[in-house]
User: Which sequence fits this backbone?
RNA sequence: GGCCUCAUCGUCUAACGGUUAGGACAUCAGGUUCUCAUCCUGACAAUCCGGGUUCAAUUCCCGGUGAGGUCACCA
């Protein structure tokens, strides 16, 4: 049984880099029919941010990354918060002490800092094991507990990175339990992964340097390490740094507020560092689950390109069926109980479901993000203020004088006015517009653009007959006359 | 700085010794009876550098260079 986990620390939100690690771990588990576990690594009280756990869970849910076991839903290996598992770490720590593989660190932080500074000054790398106390005090939990390491060279295999090597130099007596009684990540994750029967440790590149230390600890504990799968980093947009909160990496939930849909997010994140070897670009989550394998994950870092995400989002918006898309414009989500935001503009908010659906039908293909909704829809719900500046900036229309423009619009109003309500359909409207073209001796780029502006005063909108049908005869004529 | 990892169009990537180095995003140019967008067509655009190995290197090896990571009582 394949078991993978995502193990964030509750220090705030999750950004795209973190969510990709979670996604890949989820995909590995689902692909194999295994289990995906969420575990909270809350062992650093100082860095903990209030509300993080709920926020992280919400982020995963919003993306449809469902876990089988976790802090809020429990599971066979509960609890799933490390702060609630302190007894376990203590138990294993005592085993190490008894076996002579761990000892209490008698130095104060200042003393260690001094040793470190001295080493640095003399140009040598600092290793705690060079300063191992000869007769360490009995561990009374008020002092840090360190691993008594057994330095040696390591070669190991990583499911993504391939064969990795490290010399004994990189092994040191790292801290297992801090003086506050909490374990370090380095210790806790190994114990938890063992006890939770995790088969694959999928995590970011930043842990590769400390893997030799982990291997040394696995040996001391006499346990077999799981499979390692190390993900390359996602770099920030400007391009030369690991994506990180300190550099303003966006909260993934922010993308939902910006009008990106779940499928596009998942598709996009998966495409950074993974592909199936074909030329397929658009994948459903089901396809990703079916096709995902770690051996097709790339080894080099990927840069985050939001333009590509926008494109992918527009592809997904076009693919969604109307009911589904409509629900999302209201902020509803299949995987969240509470709503994200409602994207309709002020007038759209007051419109009926029926009206909004009709509008959505004809603008669906033009939405790149749900946030485009107001500019594409408000003019259907409320009469827009004329903005002649838009016409003056149009390279075709600005060739005409204002009088000529108004005359054309008047002609359009007259002509369309002769079309009665029962013939107010796409075909008749198109015919009428074509006749108008001949009668006014005008060209489509001139006449049609002008009418479109007069009806919508928007930078873009659907085709004229559709727009006119939705506005209705009276409103169409009123807007033409008013301009 | 030590150690580790990585390196194909501007960006995401394909290629697992033999291809005109493919696709997608972006950009640009046309087309679709309206602008923007969509959609269609086309164009532009890459193997970091230098050595090897080989009949043949994007691919294998070595050395540079560049980028990222890591050297915490953070994860």
Assistant:
């Amino acid at each position: 049984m394949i078991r993978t986990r995502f193990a964030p620390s509750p220090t705030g939100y999750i950004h795209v880099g973190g969510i990709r690690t979670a996604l890949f771990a989820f995909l590995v588990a689902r692909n194999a029919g295994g289990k995906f576990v969420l575990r909270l690594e809350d062992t650093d009280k100082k860095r903990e941010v209030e509300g993080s756990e709920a926020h992280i869970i919400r982020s995963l849910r919003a993306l449809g990354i469902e876990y089988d076991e976790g802090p809020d839903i429990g599971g066979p290996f509960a609890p799933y918060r490390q702060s609630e598992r302190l007894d376990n770490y203590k138990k294993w720590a005592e085993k190490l002490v008894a076996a002579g593989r761990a000892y209490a660190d008698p130095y104060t932080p200042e003393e260690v800092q001094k040793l470190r500074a001295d080493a640095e000054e003399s140009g040598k790398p600092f290793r705690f094991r060079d300063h191992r106390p000869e007769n360490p005090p009995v561990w009374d939990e008020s002092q840090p507990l360190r691993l008594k390491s057994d330095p040696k060279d390591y070669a190991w295999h990583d499911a993504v990175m391939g064969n990795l090597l490290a010399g004994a130099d990189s092994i040191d007596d790292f801290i297992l339990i801090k003086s506050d009684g909490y374990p370090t990540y380095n210790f806790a994750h190994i114990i938890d992964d063992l006890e939770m029967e995790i088969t694959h440790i999928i995590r970011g590149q930043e842990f590769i340097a400390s893997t030799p230390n982990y291997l040394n600890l696995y040996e001391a504990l006499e346990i077999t390490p799981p499979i390692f799968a190390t993900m390359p980093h996602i770099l920030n947009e400007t391009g030369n740094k690991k994506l990180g909160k300190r550099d303003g990496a966006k909260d993934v939930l922010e993308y939902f507020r910006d009008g990106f849909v779940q499928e596009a997010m998942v598709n996009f994140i998966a495409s950074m560092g993974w592909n199936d070897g074909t030329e397929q670009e658009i994948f459903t989550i089901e396809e990703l689950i079916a096709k995902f394998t770690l051996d097709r994950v790339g080894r080099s870092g990927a840069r985050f390109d939001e333009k590509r995400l926008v494109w992918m989002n527009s592809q997904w918006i076009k693919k969604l069926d109307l009911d589904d898309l409509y629900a999302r414009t209201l902020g509803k989500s299949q995987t969240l109980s509470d709503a994200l935001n409602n994207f309709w503009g002020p007038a759209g908010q007051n419109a009926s479901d029926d009206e909004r659906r009709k509008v959505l039908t004809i603008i669906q293909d033009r939405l790149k993000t749900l946030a485009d909704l107001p500019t594409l829809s408000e003019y259907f719900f409320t009469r827009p203020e004329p903005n002649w500046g838009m016409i003056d900036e149009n390279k075709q229309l600005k060739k005409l004088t204002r009088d000529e423009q108004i005359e054309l619009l008047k002609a359009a109003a007259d002509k369309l006015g002769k079309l009665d309500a029962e013939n107010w359909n796409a075909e008749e409207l198109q015919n009428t517009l074509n006749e108008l073209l001949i009668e006014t001796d005008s060209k489509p780029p001139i006449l049609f653009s002008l009418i479109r502006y007069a009806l919508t005063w928007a930078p873009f909108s659907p085709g004229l007959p559709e727009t006119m049908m939705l506005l209705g005869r009276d409103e169409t004529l009123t807007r033409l006359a008013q301009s």
About this structure: Residues 322-381 of chain A form one domain. Chain A has three domains: 1-78+155-166+182-319, 322-381, 388-482. Residues 397 and 450 of chain A are 7 Å apart (CA to CA).
